Amino acid sequence: MKRHKLAPRLRQAVELAAELEQEVQGGAGNREKLAETLRALRTLLDDLEVAGAQTEAQAEGLSGVRRRLAWEHQRYTELFDSAPDGYIVTDLWGNILEANHAAAALLGVEQRFLRGKPLRLYFHSDSLSTLYSRLNALQKKGAVERWEAALVTRFGKPLDVHLTVVTGMFTVYSKSTELRWLVQDISARKRAEREERDQLFRISFERADVGIGHAGPRGEWLRVNRRLCEITGCPDTEMLTSRLGTLFHAEDAEQVVDVQRRLLIGESPAPLEVRCVRADQKVIWVKVTASAVRSASGEFLYSIIVLDDVTERRRIEQAEREQRIIAEALRDTALVLASARDFADVIDQIVLGLGRVVRYDTAGLILIEGEYAHVARTQSAAESSPARSMSPAQGRRIRIDEVAFLREMCDRRQPVLRAEWSGHEVFQSIDGIEKTGSFVAAPIVAHDRAIGFLYLFSKTRYFFGGAHAELLRVFASQAAIAIQNTQMHHNARALAVMQERSRLARELHDAVTQNLFMAHMISDALATTWTDAPESKQQQLRQLQTVTRTALTEMRSLLLELRPEHLSNLDLGNQLRQLVEAFKVRKQVDVSLSIDGPEPPALDVRVAFYRIAQEALNNVVKHSQATRVEVTLEATADSAHLNIRDNGVGFDRHAITPGMGLQSMTERAAEILAALHIDSAPDAGTQVDVVWRAAANGQE
Hints:
- This protein has 19 helices and 21 strands.
- The protein is an alpha+beta fold.
- α10 (311-338) packs antiparallel against α11, α10 packs parallel to α15 (466-528) and α18 runs antiparallel to α19.
């Protein structure tokens, strides 16, 4: 029976015994009650006897538990103290409450001196921040924390350990917690890992495809790999006795030294590409990437300098840039070919284009005239303004037979290269060309004949090579096309002027000259017949007036054609009226003009309608033999319709070849997106219809 049940039973037995004593003292009148009390007391005594037996059994069991606990404690103590790994018990703040022999041995401190000491005293400074964060996590949420840390023994020896920390209770009834630490020595494993990493680093360092070196605070080389020695052409023994800046070109060394300075103050400089001077004095391009290695406290230890040879990439990029520049220069030259520029402008553009793709001191263009050549343009690289540097070299005539390489180019039509120039004295008289240097020239060939030369001169001997000669050949071929194009354009313009002059001469002969001749004949007749009858004189004067008015109208029409800007100052109605009046005088044909509606809004429409009407009436004069012509113009705000009808002989459009007149009308209608329809048949007259709508021109 348990204790909390036994105590009430004992109190009940005492109460029954007292009650029995009172009844006995009171006499025999209460026998029944006395018997009942005795029975209850007997029952209680039986229960007490059972409870006593149970209590003895419990006492024996408790004694066994105490012995077992003592044995377990002894066993725990033996295991705790004799465990191969370090065990430490601390409070929540890391203060040591208990530590076993292994933990004391790891830390190099006796067990009794560890109690009460903060565990952080034995943590390396690099591991303290991790310790505090882990303790904070255990205080907030408990659970288990595992991590690797660096400890320091009493004698300053570094110790790598793996820590496992769990929370525990002091007693069953206590709510205080403790931290139990399992400390495992992993120094040997860490040392092996470091050795393996070092071995891998040494292999990768030595076998890297890029040059790698370690430089100290003053730029001295501490360590270099094989590739770095190959890039610089210096053996490692020589490298380790030099400094960082000595490897690079004098113009670039300061940039590299500045990178080291920036690393020292904690900056992270961007990679840069500089020139490196090898031991054999060959200059190469390298990409320099640098980073700093620092201690846990932030102290600068050394910098890692990586050099990558980018000479080939730079060469390819430079070649691509040059090809792009050449393509752009040739494109500009091609634009010159398609332009209608003056001959001097074309030459200037060609020589200027050379300066974009080739470095030189003097460039020029020489043109050939018979057995002589003269410098047409020169370009000096020293001039600040290319426009001023272009100048025709008047009087600098060179006889081709006097200069061997000029004759050679004329005969062979191939470029000439003089890497070490000591040229003809005639060339030395040209501004910018000296006695010595490098010279390259290419012939400008047209129709299998040299018509000139392009030349380049550099004061540096051996500056030009075969690539320059080939490039100059390309420009020379472009120059030939450009020169021929400008000459053809000039000839075409001259021919056009001559054709226009011939046309005007024909018009003047057919119209104005004949009228003036008739006026002259009438005036002569008047002079000889002045004494005749007055009626005859008046008739001749009227004829003279008609002829002179006709000549005046014809002359105005021709002037209007020569100065088309006047068309923009007149409305279409007035223009058509003047045209019809001139036609009446010239042809003596019945002509009617009908105009209905406002002016077409667009100037180009008015000009086109006028020109088409002019051409149609000219065709009537020349070909139709008509006696009646009707001209009608109907216009609205967004449309216009021009109709010209005659009763002439007509023609079969399918049986004739369209002349310039019909083609001109078709082209002018197409320019304003108008519909042109010409209806004609033999002996049926001709009708010309032109219809323009704003909607077709996107003007709605």
